[in-house]
Amino acid sequence: MSLADHRVLPVPEGLAGERVDAAMARLFGLSRSRSADLIAAGHVELDGKPVAKSDRVLPGAILDVTIPVEADPLEVVPEVVEGIKIIHDDDAIVVIDKPVGVAVHPSPGWSGPTVVGHLAGAGFRISTSGASERQGIVQRLDVGTSGVMVICKSEHAYSVLKNAFRNRTVDKTYHALVQGHPDPLEGTIDAPIGRHPKADYKFAVMADGRHSVTHYETLEAHRFASLLQIHLETGRTHQIRVHMAALKHPCVGDLTYGADPSLSRRVGLERQWLHAVRLGFEHPDTGDYVEYESEYPEDLAHALEVIRDAH
């Protein structure tokens, strides 16, 4: 596929005197606003000269238009991503350690690296049903969350693990460094989560939200923050971040959900301190219980040391 569609046409009699953007819309089936954008970007010439959208066309004048092909935001682009580690690989599944800054699959508005793109680029064959950009995906981690996740390679594994996640038989363990000290030191947060009423990129505890349950226990308590071990019973978008923020103990570094910017700077974090440390489930082919782990990445390990050393 070429990166641009180049078209050259004489202006017909019927469009004499029209504005350039209107003439383009009629000739090429584009919207007026798309035509105006192409003119503004310098992709349009009339008789070999640049034009303004309000210029008028004369019959027989040569309209020369270059239309860049817009990339499909859901296209999987095979691209090996530095930092993705393969923890386990067999015929049914591949388990990876996802670094921060990598999305699980392509989506509108995201042009960065993806797990799906990496696996395609690294030669992994994923053959499962579902939308092409989400093949094999049975769980997600936020772009800003690192850690262990599983992708299914076969149709059988996909259906078995999809059901396991749906039926909550997968053990998902996270570590989170949160501000302050949750009281009690261990507990369960059972609070429905829905889209934030004022910011569509955020979520919040909402009366009409979806059922969401988070179990936590304190592993370490320090002067400014506590290291928690968290088990997710449900798997909502941003669940841990929303629930901890609702308790007034947001994840350190999580500015979206109310973390203290000065503490974030002090520990050198530009994202939430949240890491998927363990994933356990019955292997879809053997039925054996398997468990995979991921160590803290450098930025989180460093931030934790700063908190441990703070007096």
Average the pLDDT over all residues and give the rounded result.
93
Architecture of the largest domain, CATH level 2?
2-Layer Sandwich
Shape: elongated
Main sheet overview: 9 strands, mixed
β-strand number: 15
CATH superfamily of the largest domain: Pseudouridine synthase
Rg computed from alpha carbons, rounded to a whole number of angstroms: 26 Å
What portion of residues is helical? Answer: 10-25%
Beta-strand share of residues: 25-35%
Q: What is CATH's topology name of the largest domain?
A: Pseudouridine synthase
Distance between the termini: 60 Å
How would you describe this structure in keywords?
about 20% helix, 9-stranded mixed sheet, Pseudouridine synthase, 15 strands, about 300 residues, RNA-binding, EC 5.4.99.-, 4-stranded antiparallel sheet, 7 helices, Structural Genomics Hypothetical 15.5 Kd Protein In mrcA-pckA Intergenic Region, Chain A
Write up this protein.
This protein has three domains: 4-68, Roll (Structural Genomics Hypothetical 15.5 Kd Protein In mrcA-pckA Intergenic Region, Chain A), CATH 3.10.290; 71-167, Pseudouridine synthase; 168-311, Pseudouridine synthase (2-Layer Sandwich). Strands 5, 6, 7, 8, 9, 12, 13, 14 and 15 form a nine-stranded mixed sheet that branches. The protein has a four-stranded antiparallel sheet with strand order 1-4-2-3. The protein has helices at 20-28, 32-40, 115-121, 155-166, 239-246, 261-267, 298-309; strands at residues 4-10, 44-46, 49-50, 62-68, 85-89, 93-98, 146-152, 171-179, 186-190, 193-195, 203-205, 213-221, 225-232, 274-282, 289-293. It is 21% helix and 28% strand. It starts with a strand and ends with a helix. The protein has 311 residues and is α+β, with helices and mostly antiparallel strands. The protein has seven helices and 15 strands. A hairpin with a 6-residue loop joins strand 14 (274-282) and strand 15 (289-293). The model has no long low-confidence stretch (mean pLDDT 93). Keywords: Isomerase, RNA-binding. GO terms for molecular function: RNA binding; rRNA pseudouridine synthase activity. It catalyses: a uridine in RNA = a pseudouridine in RNA.
